Amino acid sequence: MAMGYPAGTTREMGGKDPMNIRTDFSRSVRLLDHVWIPLSDGCRLSAKIWLPEDAETDPVPAILEYLPYRKSDGSLPLDAGQHAYFAGHGYAGVRVDIRGTGDSEGLLWDEYTRQEQDDGVEVIAWLAGQPWSNGNVGMIGISWGGFNGLQVAARRPPALKAVVSMCSTDDRYANDEHYIGGCLMGPEMQSYATMLFGYATHAPDPAIVGERWKEMWRERLDAATPALPTWVSHQRRDDYWRHASVCEDYAALDCAVYMVGGWADGYRDAVLRMLEHYRGPIKALVGPWCHSRPQSGHPGPPIGFLQEALRWWDHWLKGIDTGIMDEPAATFWMQDAYTRDQDWNDKTGRWLTEDSWPSANVTVRAFTIGQDGLGAGPIGLDERPTVPSAVTFRSPQTTGIEGGCWISWSCDDDSPGDQRPDDERSQVFDSPPLAERLEILGQAKAILDVACDQPQALIAARLCDVDEAGASTLVARGVLNLTHRVSHAAPRPLAPGTRYRVAVPLAAAAYSFPPGHRLRLALSTSLWPLAWPSPHPVTMTLLSGESRLELPERSAAGDVAPPAFLEPEEAPLPGYEQLEEDISEIVIAHDPASGRIESVWDESGRFRLADGLVHEYRGRDTYAIVEGDPLSAEATSSWAFASERGDWRARVEAKSRLTSDESDFHVTCSLDAYQDDERVATRMWETTIPRDGC
To answer: pLDDT-based confidence at 13, cuts 50/70/90?
Structure first.
């Protein structure tokens, strides 16, 4: 294979088809394996383009996916099928490495930068101007690609007509993996920052970028800056987080938006917010899935989302009336109660639709929180119980250990388990057995009157479904840093002993509680490791009679004929050989003698692509705390990425450690890089950051 290419030219894959591209499409497909896209500042971004063979004589729209996850190895197995499918149906499927990642030139120092958006606007203009393009462009992406689809759309590039944004958010502070309810997040922020550092410093592929690969790699290693200290430094909602949060100005968006999410994923609330606040053309879909594409979504059922996306693209990029915009605006999966003898990946439930959000089919149903549990029936929102009663509790630091990931990837290994162990560590309020089915759709909310013995505290609320045998299933959870009770932008310490009324919103959910089951509200002063603990153990007093749980009850009378999704269609997959089985697991270890509990999260995999490249990744994240000592909290993360072909091998190892004392966070990051097993770079960063109410 040729080793270097002038700006704007391509390298096509000839001979044996290394990508195993399907040939049974309406239009035959060719792969432009490496295309340089020149930018105005001289930097070049590397792209793969799946293109109909006859696109120069019959131009097509382009569908862009724009990510830092290395299009030629790390994300190729997922990218290739989707984009070849689109190309076979008359589109250019385009996958671009963000500046400073994969095979693109330049440097990446943080997520969602102004530079990333500037580059995205230029890429869209370049795509629209190609001889094979009809001038219309769409963006599609999951997670990072879902984020920047919305962010670039807010820049209003003229050629961008529509976006499909999956598992994303409109709010980088309140609904991302850095902070939750004003609390610094342990697992996702720590792990992701370290993983991203590895992606940003890994070597480009010599077979694609040519002999400059070593110069490009050295530039990355010399300029490397970990993002974790930056994220920890911004503990309140400031301009750093407002940047690229499209909720700051929904009106800036100026194209059609299809929001997609899953009830088992952390990124689901944004779908409802976008439905409520965006005034442009919008569709929404939330299934039972975790952080995955709907066509391969688990837990099931998956749907034929490639076909659904084609209906969307045909309408907005080709001007074909597919009827998709005549259908209800939103489609949701209403999940049946989960039983412990059920396969987690085989959910039961039904699809339902809503014409708008908020929905006229959803009303607030409130339950009192009393010493005897949740009130047996609803109360009016303005009613007051006659005699409030005080309930005092202090939760073990390990409360929350059964909660699984905020971003669930596999759903088997990283999903919440039976909540009874965490319920025992919490103050719980149960309802009597339900006399009839109760269905919720939207965000529940706990309205609590509380007082604490410390100036800094958090309150976590979990809504659970308790079956006849006592098994407890997590339906939704929320947490609030009580110094953020008024504002995430301007925290205020608590006055110990003073009563405050606070609202704790829970994550959105669609769930059907059957007759005979009980609702459970579990309250706790810790939620480890999801939320970093307050600096001192907290004793909290709840005025139970003055507090209530508000549920978004949906009337089944609002049901209409459900949508008829097609079965998932087989997408073309790249030729690759699995050399090691993918591992994703969480192991919890408890040392009774010391009181230390560890949650160890492992991920790894190794595979060979058809062009001979071998890629591997290995990650280990450990979250440890000693019972009774919040200052013992410790999070460590290690991520390694390696690529090899023939006698060439490059590897990076990124590590981080986060601890805290009463006044400060302490962040340590390190980076080691190896060529052919010889270390060519080693660096370390140590940062002390004042605690700012977290």
So the answer is: very low
Asked if 383 and 326 sit in the same domain, the reply is no
Distance CA(40)–CA(62), nearest Å, equals: 21
Q: In whole angstroms, what is the distance from residue 87 CA to residue 510 CA?
A: 35
* Residue range 371-383: mean pLDDT, rounded: 62
Answer with the residue of higher pLDDT: 569 or 280: 280
Domain that holds residue 491: 363-554
HEC letters along 260-315: EEECCCCCCHHHHHHHHHCCCCEEEEEECCCCCCHHHCCCECCCCHHHHHHHHHHH
Same domain, 335 and 404: no
25 pLDDT band, cuts 50/70/90, is confident
Element (H, E) at 87: helix 76-88
Strand partners, 462: 477, 522
pTM of structure? 0.94
**Is residue 331 scored above 70 in pLDDT?**
yes
User: What average pLDDT does the chain have?
Assistant: 91
Binning the chain into helix, strand and coil, the percentages to the nearest 5 are: 20, 40, 40
Is pLDDT at 615 greater than 80 in this prediction?
yes
629 with 690, same domain: the answer is yes
Give dist(CA 15, CA 444) in Å, integer.
57
CA dihedral angle for residue 319, residue 357, residue 248, residue 138, rounded to 10 degrees: -20
* Dihedral angle computed from the Cα positions of residues 215, 217, 221 and 224, in that order, rounded to the nearest 10 degrees: 110
Read off the pLDDT of residues 98-153 as tens digits, 9 standing for 90 and up.
999 999 999 998 999 999 999 999 999 999 999 999 999 999 999 999 999 999 99
Q: What is the DSSP string of 499-510?
A: -EEEEEEEEEEE
Same domain, 583 and 468: no
Stated as kind and residue range, the H or E segment containing 195 is helix 187-201
DSSP-assigned letter for residue 531: B
> Is 177 inside any structural domain?
no
> What confidence score (pLDDT) does residue 15 get?
33
Q: State which amino acid sits at residue 320.
A: I
Q: Tell me the DSSP string of 550-567.
A: EEEEE-GGG--PPP-PPP
Number of domains in the chain: 3
Which residue, of 488, 521, 554, is where some domain finishes?
554
Residue 513 lies in a domain: yes
The answer to whether residues 367 and 415 belong to one domain is yes
Is residue 425 domain-shared with residue 529, that is, in the same domain?
Answer: yes
The answer on 611 and 547 residing in a single domain is no
Greatest extent of the chain over all pairs of C-alpha atoms, in Å: 81
Query: Under a CB-based contact definition with an 8 Å cutoff, are residues 114 and 121 in contact?
Result: no
Give Cα 27 to chain centroid, integer Å: 34
Asked whether the beta carbons of 115 and 78 are under 8 A apart, the reply is: no
Given a contact cutoff of 8 angstroms between Cβ atoms, the answer to whether 588 and 401 are in contact is yes
